[in-house]
Amino acid sequence: LSELGRHREAVKLFRDTLTARERITGPSSQESLVAANNLASSLCKDSREQEAKEVLEKTLASCHRVLGEDHPLSLSSASNLAVVLHKLGNRVQATELHTRVQCQREGARCKDLHHAPEGPTSRCKRNVPEQGESEEEVLRLLTGMGIPRERSATYLPSLLAAGFDTEAAFETL
């Protein structure tokens, strides 16, 4: 339904699915958490970002508690929350969360090569391209953000012309 632009109907269907999953498998089951992610995605497509944010914050907390912070569903939930935060105008928070997710996905490699202390937290410095980086370096960073290489390559000229940064990637891609 969402693919057909019938977002309100999709939200209802995903909400019903989440309710059924929670009743059958429990509110913290992996199936329920996936259903909550799907509901949040549908809410976002229906321009209900604040509701999506609330669902994702609750889902992410449950994912961390039940599955751990490095579980793929936890990382996916956090990445989805970063997108919603960006749409709500919380670009700094969105970029920080996305960077944290990317560092968790890169695991030890990120910790060994890219972490540097910045205030009270650490973040992966390589997630934000610097001025003058080559096209290949920017493509590598985009694919590291989970954006398919083919799609990244299509938008690369406009991203570079705009002085590529993480925000430009969120807005363009």
Describe the protein.
The protein is mainly α and 173 residues long. It contains nine helices and two strands; from the N terminus they run H-H-H-H-H-H-E-E-H-H-H. It has helices at residues 7-25, 30-45, 49-67, 72-87, 91-106, 108-113, 135-144, 149-161, 166-172, and strands spanning 115-118, 121-124. Strands 1-2 form a two-stranded antiparallel sheet. A hairpin with a 2-residue loop joins strand 1 and strand 2 (121-124). Helix 3 packs antiparallel against helix 4. The chain is globular, with a radius of gyration of 17 Å. Mean pLDDT is 76; it is low at 111-131.
**How is the largest sheet built, in terms of strand order?**
1-2
Indicate the radius of gyration in whole angstroms.
Answer: 17 Å
Distance between the termini: 22 Å
Count of helix runs: 9
Q: Any key phrases for this structure?
A:
173 residues, mainly alpha, two-stranded antiparallel ribbon, 9 helices, 71% helix, globular
Brief write-up:
With 173 residues, the protein is mainly α. It is 71% helix and 5% strand.
Layout: helices, strands, pairs:
Elements lengths: L6 H19 L4 H16 L3 H19 L4 H16 L3 H16 L1 H6 L1 E4 L2 E4 L10 H10 L4 H13 L4 H7 L1
